[in-house]
Amino acid sequence: MDILIKEVIVLHPTSDHHQQEVDIHISNGNIKKIGKNLNISADKIITGSRLYCCIGLCDIGVHTGEPGNEHRETISSVTQAALSGGYTALAVFPDTKPVMQTKASIGFIKNHPERHGVDLYPIGALSKDVKGVDIAEYMDMKQAGIIAVSDGMNGIDDTSLMSRALQYASTLALPVIHHPCDHHLSAGGEMHEGVVSTSMGMRGIPSIAELNMVQRDTLLQSYNGGTIIEHAISASESVEAIRTAKKQNQNITATVAYMNLLHTDEDLVDFDSNLKVQPVLRSESDRLALVNGLKDGTIDAIVSNHTPLDEEAKNLEFPYATPGAIGLETCLAAVVDGLSNDLNLSEIITKMTVGPRQLLGLEIPEIKEGAKANIAVFDTNAPWSMAMSEIVSKSKNSPYIDMQFKTKVVFVLPG
Prior knowledge:
The strands form four sheets. The chain has an eight-stranded parallel sheet, sandwiched between helices. Strands 1, 2, 3, 4, 5, 16 and 19 form a seven-stranded mixed sheet that branches. A two-stranded parallel ribbon has the order 11-12. The relative contact order is 0.16. It folds into two domains: 94 residues, Roll (Urease, subunit C, domain 1); 305 residues, Alpha-Beta Barrel (TIM Barrel). The two termini are 15 Å apart. The chain is globular, with a radius of gyration of 21 Å. With 415 residues, the chain is an alpha/beta fold. The longest helix has 17 residues. Strand 6, helix 1 and strand 7 form a beta-alpha-beta unit.
């Protein structure tokens, strides 16, 4: 099949055509020609008002639902949702049922027949059954194909366990992905601790619950070596702690969930349970610190924090609703529309394509003649809204239903 993408601006730092407007001819899944005003007969021609082309987006920390929670999400539905949002690669958290800690469970994800061409990269359990007690068998999982270890969004309170995990993982060149949250300080909290939580009468989660773990992790990394990805940070103090660690050449990297870049605790005054997420939405000063962390390289990647939940978990009074929102279908549009005054488009796309792959040591696709096409094309002037009936994910827990976006993914080709 021949595909011709007309008048599209390439956004890929290593491409010779970076930030240039070109035509791209794809034939049988390979980039055949890149140039101006290509006059080629094609089976499909893609045009738009303001088109951009990047390599397929890559996400870290996706919850697949399947196996175990197929009523929330399946491999088929999550990969279709990924494609609709421009993603061609997903690093999958291990908190499935059964937990991703055996050769069989890892192979089930990695080689699933209904992944629609999307690359699925299993993240193995850091602790047995992701319970935070005993260390899992990293060697066996590495041989089965994991690319990192993590307990998902479960913070590791046990300092000894985290220390041993770093030691073990470093011998296998596996990064440790850790969502920093001290459960002793966050227990019972529903939102960011501050003026807004007080006015709403809600129990808050203080920033120190996150900072405490970030600072502990930097000390453990300095002592043990290895690589830590501080996943989905939310507090300004965490940004500064990671910035300091990086200046000291420590192997500490960081991701941020896109909703924490766009929303604050003030958005919770209407008690919308779809805005109840983990990590919690914090203050405007925290949000700005996260944006600045992206600008100066302290934060390496933007993630969707895709957490599918059924209606029984979300359609409840705010204190009783489970934290989490789906994000694969709206992350790119929301970030490009919402951060256009803070970051240039090339910076945003790099944090969603190259950045995540670099953190995980994955091969980075290229946009050049002769390369296998692994691309996403989006239009920044294509107004649309996501109706409930149009959500591809099996779960519908999104705060963006019927919200107007300007940026829309118009074509995706997984490599």
